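Example record

One chain of 134 residues, shown exactly as stored in the release files.
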Amino acid sequence: MDSPETRSRIMRAVKSKDTTPEMLVRKVVHRMGYRFRLYRGDLPGKPDIVLPRLRKIIFIHGCFWHGHNCTRGSRVPVNNRIYWTKKIARNRERDIEHQASLHDLGWDILVIWECQTRDENTTKSLLAEFLNFR
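Predicted structure tokens for this chain:
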């Protein structure tokens, strides 16, 4: 079991931008010929990828942080369980609120989960279906 200092150092190292899954998705979208904007702060939820001309938004969610139903997302840390359960539940609520606001503003949304980026073909097919459907 990690000491509090070790755990704190590990948590500080967790990135919120330019993560490996985000970089993979960006690379695929760019190779498909699309140009996009990143982290538009003027939109609810500060989306990871915004394609303004198509009115489409892509969120790349970490399975643990956003409570996906895969193996990694279903895992709850042994230490401080109540804190983590509340935190992840609030993240999920906020995701729903942001997506509803974006839909109300006329945006189409795709959420790609971290586990879906492990297979590049899966990522490509998700993106092709979403972006080619106008």
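Notes: The chain is about 50% helix and 15% strand.
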